[in-house]
Amino acid sequence: MASDAVIRELTAAVQRSPEAVELRLHLVDLLIQQGSVTEALTHCSAALAQDASNAAALNLLQRCTAALATGSAPEAPAVRPNAEFNWSAAEEEVSDIIGPAFVDGAAETVDGEGAADFDVVRRSDVTLADVAGMEAVKQRLEVSLLGPIRNPELMRAYKVNARGGLLMYGPPGCGKTYLARAVAGELGANFYAVGIADVLQHWLGDSERALARIFDTARRNAPCVLFFDEVDALGQRRAALSNSSGLRVVVNALLAELDTATSSNDGVYVLAATNMPWDVDPALRRPGRFDRMIFVGLPDTEARAAIVRMNLRDRPVERIDPASVAKRTDGFSGADIAHVCDTATQLAMAASLRAGEVRPVRMSDVDAALLQIRPSAGPWFDTARNVVEFANGDGTYDELANYLRRKKMR
Ligand SMILES: Nc1ncnc2c1ncn2[C@@H]1O[C@H](COP(=O)(O)OP(=O)(O)O)[C@@H](O)[C@H]1O
Ligand SMILES: [Mg+2]
Known about the structure:
Layout: H1 4-16, H2 21-34, H3 37-50, H4 55-70, H5 87-93, E1 108-109, E2 121-123, H6 135-150, H7 152-157, E3 166-169, H8 176-187, E4 191-194, H9 196-203, H10 207-220, E5 224-229, H11 236-241, H12 244-263, E6 268-274, E7 292-295, H13 301-312, H14 322-327, H15 334-355, H16 363-372, H17 378-390, H18 398-406
Parallel strand pairs: 3-6, 3-7, 4-5, 5-6
Antiparallel strand pairs: 1-2
Bound molecules: adenosine-5'-diphosphate (ADP) and magnesium ion.
Pfam families: AAA, AAA_lid_3, TPR_19
Protein name: AAA family ATPase
GO molecular function, one term: ATP hydrolysis activity
């Protein structure tokens, strides 16, 4: 009999994908076996409401009513309705017939010296080659960041210094953080991710010392990149909502460190990312600080196909056509496409569970997933249009404006 955990996960999966009749019927089957007949009945009628002639559903309905009539089935404890779909529990259930769906290649955080101060990305398996498409962005990172770091002598010979940092901005889920991980992969030990949230949470009283230590470590390991993700967390608007004077101190400490680091030409490069550049403290964007902006837009057709391939690479798949998925996902972010792939996998896995044998992810699963998932960047572009229209007097957002015009979004 299926464990409570599996039933919980399936229930959560059904809640997240209410259209997935097969998945729901599998849950009904397990619920009847477990004796939760009324619950089974509820799901059974939901399935029949979607597909009144579904033979399996009708069969299950019969089993429900029979069980209710004999009163033989004891009621089991209620399921927890809001549990997240737990892949590991479900995978365990089918471990003998299906390989692991995920291999975690994420960057690791080093324990030990210096680790308490900020996240040190020791190893990132992602390199720029893993970032699909985005040629223009990659080239700018190569020229402004990677090239100079790989050739410090050249930098000295040309008397070029590391003054000024790069700020990546764009809609959520389009690869800014992922690009930073790729830069980390390219640079190995010379990449430091600074957790702004950590600095804010743990060091509010002593942020100068915390930041000084971070920059110190960076200088000792130069040439290197310091990466600040979601820098809008330091912005004025957020400040208004929280302890703004404390935040001010952090921002000032950061500004002071940035100014010294970049003016002393000691090979500390700074990189930052945000979904909301308009919320970033303007002081952070002045010359010598994060003064160059790079727009990271939605993935193009080619990138979308590659993202599909990448996301399904380690899963059992059959006759998936990435180009066709790419064609139908214009406007989707990388994260949206990853979500489509996850959902398709989930549907195939539910079918595998039902059948008791591996059933690879097929285009029909992707089609079903595409019916459920809408692109998520709409609201971001609404804001972006307004910014370009009313707040681009100084040309800060020209790259974004050109993008919107090219895409006929303005
Ligand atoms: N160009 C891309 N190539 C491959 N994967 C991508 C790309 N863009 C986005 N993704 C996927 O989308 C996920 C979310 O991207 P992320 O970097 O977190 O977005 P952002 O930081 O811009 O909000 C990534 O983990 C990655 O799986
Ligand atoms: Mg991010």
